[in-house]
User: Fold this.
Amino acid sequence: MGKVEKQYYSFAHPPQKLVLESGAELGPVTIAYETYGTLTKEKDNCILLTHAFSGDSHAAGYYREKGEEEKQGWWESMIGPGKGIDTDKYFIICPNILGSCMGSTGPGSVNPETDSPYALSFPMVTIRDMVDTQKTLLDHLGISQLHAVIGGSVGGMQVLQWCVQYPEMVRAAIPIATTMRHSALAIAFNEIARQSIMADPNWNKGSYYGQTRPDMGLAVARMVGHVTYLSDEAMRRKFGRRLQDKEIFSFGFNADFQIESYLRHQGNKFVNRFDANSVLYITKASDYFDVVDQMSESGPINNSQQDQIKYLIISYTSDWLYPTYQAKELIKTLKRTGQDVSSCEIEADCGHDAFLIPDDRLSSLIGGFLNGIA
Amino acid sequence: MGKVEKQYYSFAHPPQKLVLESGAELGPVTIAYETYGTLTKEKDNCILLTHAFSGDSHAAGYYREKGEEEKQGWWESMIGPGKGIDTDKYFIICPNILGSCMGSTGPGSVNPETDSPYALSFPMVTIRDMVDTQKTLLDHLGISQLHAVIGGSVGGMQVLQWCVQYPEMVRAAIPIATTMRHSALAIAFNEIARQSIMADPNWNKGSYYGQTRPDMGLAVARMVGHVTYLSDEAMRRKFGRRLQDKEIFSFGFNADFQIESYLRHQGNKFVNRFDANSVLYITKASDYFDVVDQMSESGPINNSQQDQIKYLIISYTSDWLYPTYQAKELIKTLKRTGQDVSSCEIEADCGHDAFLIPDDRLSSLIGGFLNGIA
Assistant:
């Protein structure tokens, strides 16, 4: 993939605001997105790619934002000519989620009614709301049928939400390293991240725009996140107890171990690219997410055989944020309602984040599945 | 057990300061401790009990600190007449660890040379240093032989340290839910806790005594700790996705889920009883701890058959802070050197903290083992 371009679609202009799941209204709404490949005249080769918690619309190719270095897409290994998601065949859309800070409307966006950033006056958004804005974008592009919806982690929640909310539009769904709903453990880690941000006095009840930002709290929140994305085994392999740059202990509070400096680095890197309030909103949206009841109902009673969605459910053995037993629950739920389900539990020691790491097995798995869809 | 009394032993008075593992000197040193049961005239029925990270010397019975409610010991279920650790037979000593804030000298103690709290001028202490101060306390009490050393988690590290540092004094050792050294994952969680404390501006590079304390950072640190002490399964059973006190989502940043308010409560409770700097020192001590080489060497070549320590190694299936594979490594290491090792992997879904929960299996296991020691 070569250079790509970020595009924007703005809608829900007042007074026709978007009504959110909570009942609150929001408008106008801008969704940033990128596309790769070419849409057929019949508009029947579209794949919607939904990104994870801290992801963005820049999934493939190279893109330079003003003043920044050229940046490679987060799934460059997967998307391109001849790759797992083949841009010679498919037209891929990757929208930035509502509530984020990478181009789409979120708590850091300016509220046109006050001319100031929303901050905590931004209404709570849910995974359903994110999917609704994606549907509006597709309507705008004249796309009424999706060859597939694909996404990992919080992106996988959006995939499942698409299947229960607009099943008639979805031919195939590939939820990866995800869950039908958060366990207490996943909620706990998200709550720790939120508390860490809100404990930073610079957070200032969310009103820090144009002032000192809650970088310390956000960095700790990111460190927590990073540990949940890795696995015990991957961390042992990658870091073990190796020391940073000395052969002896500092007997102080410097980063002695490589794992310590790695986490500090990840925390500090994150504060330069992400908005703390967006972390609050997106983690809460994923905690609220729960499609167990809806997935249990969307069986063949509701869908005719022809309308059935083809599922490919992918999980990783070492994912302890959304462990494989949760993928198995999803598979069981779908099979109980007679759905067309394929699944693959990939043996990998690198934890939840495994789907973001270039992997030929994943590419051929997804490529083969996409080609097999009628 | 009835009322108990906290006692104090002060030593290493300048200029005879204690030389620490780092080479730094510290003195005077006070160790707070409690005892239960009666020491025989032969002083041969002593059990040393070593406590975990945030524990204290108050392991059994009831004790009231000025202005506080009467408090039950943290292992009341285990220690007492006829219990697993039988006070009719044994004389139990439980010292508060060096570096803590529950009576023994730590960073919150007043440095007599400056008449101010040490804060970060307190030297780094290690598990070896903790054990050295316990040895000094035993010397003071005229105890030269330990029927057993027993402890869980960071207390288990002290048990292992005793076995490599003063093997001739130890007849039996019961390390519970512990490890020969921290994995990258365990270091990572400790580093997050430290960073959370140090991110709180009230931490003020450790000099907050007499001022506003870094309660926010400390609370988040404790929340992180609490998640590592539980297990996915226990959290699902105990909290699941149950809501706090409403039947609907708040669509805000209140604690919607019970797990959220539980963690907030644990965090807030902790700041009232523990010192943030002590968290920094004790977590670092446990990260530094590594007896793999020493345990591998202390084989029958060094110890005659009669001097052998009898080990009972206890681990929990759902402990993901020090998973059972780490207990197995310890068992393997000890067996390779011909040690006398018994072990038990207890099936329990409540995670690392399982050893603190009243459990008849654990009581009879420990009771039986202690009675079987010659």
